[in-house]
Amino acid sequence: MRLTLSYVGFFAIALLALHVGLYLIVRGVLLESVDSELRLGVEVLRRGFAESNQTVYGYFRDDRLRAILLRQPPVRDFEATNLYVQFFDADGDLVGRSPNIGDRETAALTLDEQRFARALAGEEQITTIERGNLQLRELIAPLRYFNPVTRREEVVGVLQVARSMAEIQYALQLLFYALTAGGVIVLLAAARGGAWLTRAAFRPIDEIAQTAQSIVRAEDLSRRIPVPPAADELQRLTITVNDLLARLEALFNHQRRFIADVSHELRTPLTAMQGNLEVLARGAARDPQLLQESLDDMRREVARLIRMVNDLLLLARNDAGIQIRREPVELDTLLLETHRELRPLAGQVQLRIGEEDQVIVIGDRDRIKQALLNLGVNAIQHTPPGGIITLSLVRRDGYAALSVADTGYGIAPQDLPYIFDRFYRADRSRCHNGGGAGLGLSIVRSVVEAHGGQVLVSSEPGKGSVFTMLLPLAPQLDGAISPASNPVSNGVPQTVDMARDFE
User: Fold this and answer.
1) What distance in Å separates the CA atoms of residue 277 and residue 186, rounded to the nearest whole number?
2) End-to-end C-alpha distance for the chain, whole angstroms
3) How do residues 187-242 score in pLDDT, each as one tens digit?
4) Is 371 exposed, middle or buried (0-12, 13-18, 19+ CB in 10 A)?
5) H helix or E strand, kind and range, residue 42
6) What is the Cα–Cα distance from 179 to 27, expressed in whole angstroms?
7) Average pLDDT for residues 441-445, to the nearest whole number?
8) Is 473 exposed, middle or buried (0-12, 13-18, 19+ CB in 10 A)?
9) pLDDT score at 495
10) Rounded to two decimals, what is the model's pTM?
């Protein structure tokens, strides 16, 4: 309704401006035609007087004026039958008038001294005069005579030529009524058409709103809004809403899986602890060996729960956008520390350092180290005894590339897009020590993206995997970093970019 009223309002303003302009143009044209007729009348009288060789008193008699006004003049566009003519001599006395002037016209065609003096001075005056209901268009012009004695042109009198404006008023009145009635009809039609158009334009939006409301009421995010066939704004809106629904559906499904996975992961250590408590309750406390075994199991499960809660807390903080520390970090030193901490966990897996450049980045040292440790632990868990794990650090196109390469079981291609999802584990049977809760790689991606980098992975089943963390170099070390540079394109075959956040 507001759109229709606004449309009709703007249309009414434009229509009013058009009608006013048209009315003024027609009125001006009609007045110009009357003025031309008056000027032609004056010209006929002047020419007749100049050619008559009579005095003004003899030429401007009433009977003479009647004959002059009724004859066809040389100008074909002029007929003087509806003109009123009066002639005044230089003293202001009325010499003659046309016979068609009645009492009403006589009262209207009075000539005051000021206008008479201006006419004697050679000025032509054209005005509209009103006397009651009578409206006349009047032209006052001097009558000049060439005196052969003095050989000068002299003003011998004043001509007053007028014409009734009744026909013009009637025509303008008809035009006003026609424009008013037509404008009202056009506005009503525009209002009805505008209402129809707005309803037709908003109907798809209403359908989108109703469909969205039905989806909310039914809690069925799998439904989609029908896409209009026309490639317009509504189609783009529908596609956007459908994309939003798809993303919401994915988020809710992920949330359900997340809750189920967390419940499962928490249930396992809690069940183990409950079992140990039951063993103790049955009398294991009196057996020192059995008591120690139960306590050791509960300590391990408690430590496992603490690690899981800490990992979840870290992910929650990253999701909340908590700022990380920004300080220079020497990655070569951090790589050596990580190597020393991983060696006790490697067991029969050979852990070594490959390329090692001196690189400094700006970031949070503890979190970068945690991410690198997670990659190392993940590699140890999925590498069989006798395998090799290589830690490397190189510069690559404005980035520091921290790589963990193993000769383990590898990752199936269908699992690669999901390995960074929380609680996702491709094949637990291929992990020789049981594996963790499936949060390590999620933390790696979260930490790296918080530093403005990305995680790359390439893997081939049976041959091993290469995980690479790309972190931007410190500005003073690499001032020529270009946002358009592609760090993915160098060095690692069969690379999968996991920078996009599916959560």
Assistant:
1) 89
2) 42
3) 899 888 888 888 887 887 887 788 778 877 767 777 787 787 878 887 888 888 88
4) buried
5) helix 2-52
6) 13
7) 85
8) buried
9) 34
10) 0.46
Per-residue pLDDT of 76-107, as tens digits, reads: 333 445 788 888 888 888 888 887 787 777 77
Supply the pLDDT for residue 387.
92
Number of other residues whose CB lies within 10 A of the CB of residue 234: 18
Beta bridge pairs of residue 338 = none
Distance from C-alpha of 140 to C-alpha of 144, rounded to nearest angstrom: 13
The beta-carbon contacts of 57-66 under 8 Å, at least 24 apart in sequence, are 57/89, 57/95, 60/87, 60/95, 60/96, 60/157, 61/96, 62/96, 62/97, 62/98, 62/99, 63/99, 64/96, 65/96, 65/97, 65/98, 65/99, 66/98, 66/99
Amino acid, res. 343: R
Query: All domains of the chain, ordered by start, with CATH?
Result: 2-172 (3.30.450.20), 233-318 (1.10.287.130), 326-497 (3.30.565.10)
Q: Which is higher by pLDDT, 421 or 392?
A: 392
Can you read off the two tokens belonging to residue 421?
A: 């999802």
Q: State how far the Cα of 139 lies from the Cα of 119, in Å rounded to an integer.
A: 10
